[in-house]
Amino acid sequence: MAETVRPTFLNLPEDKQARIIEAALSEFADKGYQQASLNVIVAHSGIAKGSLYQYFTDKAGIFLYVFDFAIAVVRRLLVQVKDSTLEEDFFTRLERSLLAGLAFIRQHPKIYGIYLKILFDQQVPQRQELLQRVRQYAADYLHSLLRQGLARGELRPDLPVASTVFLLDALLDRFLQAASIPAFDVVLGLDQANAQVLHTRARELLEVLRRGLAAPPPPANL
Amino acid sequence: MAETVRPTFLNLPEDKQARIIEAALSEFADKGYQQASLNVIVAHSGIAKGSLYQYFTDKAGIFLYVFDFAIAVVRRLLVQVKDSTLEEDFFTRLERSLLAGLAFIRQHPKIYGIYLKILFDQQVPQRQELLQRVRQYAADYLHSLLRQGLARGELRPDLPVASTVFLLDALLDRFLQAASIPAFDVVLGLDQANAQVLHTRARELLEVLRRGLAAPPPPANL
Amino acid sequence: MAETVRPTFLNLPEDKQARIIEAALSEFADKGYQQASLNVIVAHSGIAKGSLYQYFTDKAGIFLYVFDFAIAVVRRLLVQVKDSTLEEDFFTRLERSLLAGLAFIRQHPKIYGIYLKILFDQQVPQRQELLQRVRQYAADYLHSLLRQGLARGELRPDLPVASTVFLLDALLDRFLQAASIPAFDVVLGLDQANAQVLHTRARELLEVLRRGLAAPPPPANL
Amino acid sequence: MAETVRPTFLNLPEDKQARIIEAALSEFADKGYQQASLNVIVAHSGIAKGSLYQYFTDKAGIFLYVFDFAIAVVRRLLVQVKDSTLEEDFFTRLERSLLAGLAFIRQHPKIYGIYLKILFDQQVPQRQELLQRVRQYAADYLHSLLRQGLARGELRPDLPVASTVFLLDALLDRFLQAASIPAFDVVLGLDQANAQVLHTRARELLEVLRRGLAAPPPPANL
DNA sequence: AATGAATGAGAATTCATTCAT
DNA sequence: GATGAATGAATTCTCATTCAT
């Protein structure tokens, strides 16, 4: 893989690096790859136009770097949620994951924004690969939850695993989209995307899932 | 709301209108709003650049017009699927809807493409409103299916309707996305997005849903 | 071969075309291909930057067009000199050619300049091909002169034709270079490249050639 | 004349100097003066960008220094060829010079390349002067050969010396150009510029020259 | 003496929009 | 009503040179 970041950037004082990453992240999240303007990024970073090219090979280089940065943040979250809920049962873990996701996009809206932008933008460099990385994280995460749930007998043993991963992924991802795109309120049945209602809605959804996925209770007389 | 299309356009011979709509639809579906080039559109329509501005107010005007056009096509499909399955039970209607959707994006990839492009593009004019219209159609459609299913006793009577609409919408929409975006293979559990496997997967998913949503069978001894 | 000029340019009023060709020719002759600045060309033509791209596909397109234009001028000269000296003997034709060349570069210094620039500039688009066209004209021209001279018995019949073409080409071309590049005065034996001395020098050179190439006089006693 | 090289450079270890000269020579020979990039030079030299400005005043300074260096190499060759052929007759010396030239450009293509690049590039600093130095060497060299040939009676006594120097210079220089620029094949009468054919062609040319320049043989009966 | 980060002017190219014909 | 030439601001990227450390 070709280099994208120059050592010059990594030698920069941390706060300067942070300012640049922040500016680039904002711009890419706002406009997508092609439409993002390096002029805007340098203006917000307070650096000269030429400097950007001392730091990165080109526009794609900047993008790939901030994307990597963003992915690292997400991955850290997933690992942390997974580890901190190891003892919980499947449905609790699912709920905790969903709530953690909601909290994350509220705290890092640009990171979620950059992912959404890339989803359907053909022009993004190495898009196929970037998307697969993200989706793979999600799929692995859900697989892991499912396996544990099955092992513990919390889920119907005849569950078609692949389809269930897909279903959960669609649901979780869309739920997060709905939380960031007001237009989705209508399919969420909300008048307004406010946090309180979202949480209620989340619990109802999990209830539906529980019915569809959970193992039947043991016969009463046993 | 300001005018977007000029009467001049509507007085044009139908085939000329069609050529222009087709060219614009292709370009917007391919590149998204900002990235679409009017030069490409006029080149493909075989009209002069200046003429475009006799027909529409500006770029946004063209976009909004073809988007309306696309929505009308979708709406016609939904109505038709709804009407032609009135007699079926809920789960059959759902399956037929999903298959109709798959057939539609294979037949009208540009229309589906323009929707996907707009989903997360902040720069699209009146995006909020356009998206709401689309999502509203889907929500209404699913509500209608659900209501009939409940009325006929095919679904658990205690189903939280709004959450279920959301769940179904997420699932159907994501399923269609997966059919057009190879990167989703991984969460679909596919090695390759081929039509045969997609149909199998669709049936498995519906089975999970049936378990989660269907009314319990009446007690045997009654 | 890809298009380089757009019809737009050819539809322009002739004086506007002429101003643009003139400006481009000047700039390319002055700076060579890569170093030439489109900014300078538009400034001298008095047109907007964007207009250049309505007229030509890109920088290479502009260059190739003015090069073609220049070649056409040169070719017209060669044809005219050739035709107007058909009755003369070989050495007279050579002298007339040399003088015509001197007159030409004095009248069209930019056309000669663009040729010189391209000679050693690796970056020129289609350089190999362009150069070959120019050299081929010269070679054909000299071949034609030589053939006639041989046919008329004005030249030694044992003359190695290819080598002689090369020798004449080198001499004529270098002579013209010397006339445009003062630094060559030193190998021309001039203190100053003034027209009078150049003509004298030309005649001396032709004398040397005559001795080397002319057929020996017939035996005296015949 | 303003200083171009700084003492700092001359105090550098010889191998470091050599690396820098080599890198600069390569770049200038490859791209010409303006198009050459100091970035490339520092990258190939393995020194820091700032250091270049400790060693030389500016880009022109670097160029002039390596040009001087290149000229010194050429001059050494000329002296050596001249001295090692003192005993030969004029035409042999000429042939040996031509072959030495061919060998030289094969061995030092960059030095010959930098000369070719500069020949017609108006932007080169002090171009006029640099070119004159080079041409002066060639003229002096040929003058010296001619004088000796005349003194020994190997050449027609009525030879116009200045014109002959010009003729020889044109021929030799163009021959070398032809050896490096494929486009010249056509005036050399070659299908392919291969070394074997070049040598044959060289001998034919010298034969033509011999006829034009050599003194007539003494009357047989004396 | 050596470094390498910073700079900003200038390069080629694109494009929505206007307007005279 | 139709045309298509004209525009200029915006785009990404390069590069010689400066200067604080």
Descriptive account of the structure:
- 4 copies of one chain form a homotetramer.
- Chain A starts with 6 loop residues before the first helix and ends in a 9-residue tail after the last helix.
- Chain A has one domain (7-213): Tetracycline Repressor, domain 2 (Orthogonal Bundle), CATH 1.10.357.
- Chain A has 11 helices and no strands.
- The longest helix of chain A has 26 residues, at 59-84.
- The mean pLDDT of chain A is 87.
- Chain A has helices at 7-10, 14-31, 38-45, 49-55, 59-84, 90-107, 109-119, 127-151, 161-180, 185-188, 195-213.
- Chain A is mainly α and 222 residues long.
- At the C-D interface, α7, α8, α9, α10 and α11 of C face α7, α8, α9, α10 and α11 of D.
- Chain A binds a DNA duplex (21 and 21 nucleotides) through residues 8, 11-12, 37-39, 47-55, 58-59.
The CATH H-level superfamily of chain A is: Tetracycline Repressor, domain 2
The multimeric state of the shown protein is homotetramer
The CATH architecture of chain A: Orthogonal Bundle
* Radius of gyration of chain A using CA atoms only: 21 Å
CATH topology of chain A: Tetracycline Repressor, domain 2
Shape of chain A: elongated
How many alpha or pi helices of chain A? 11
CATH class placement of chain A: Mainly Alpha
**SS-derived structural category of chain A:** mainly alpha
**Main sheet attributes: strand count, strand direction, barrel closure of chain A:** none
**Topology of chain A as a string of helices (H) and strands (E):** HHHHHHHHHHH
- Strand fraction of chain A: under 5%
Count the beta strands of chain A. 0
- Spans of chain A of at least 5 consecutive residues whose pLDDT stays below 50 are none
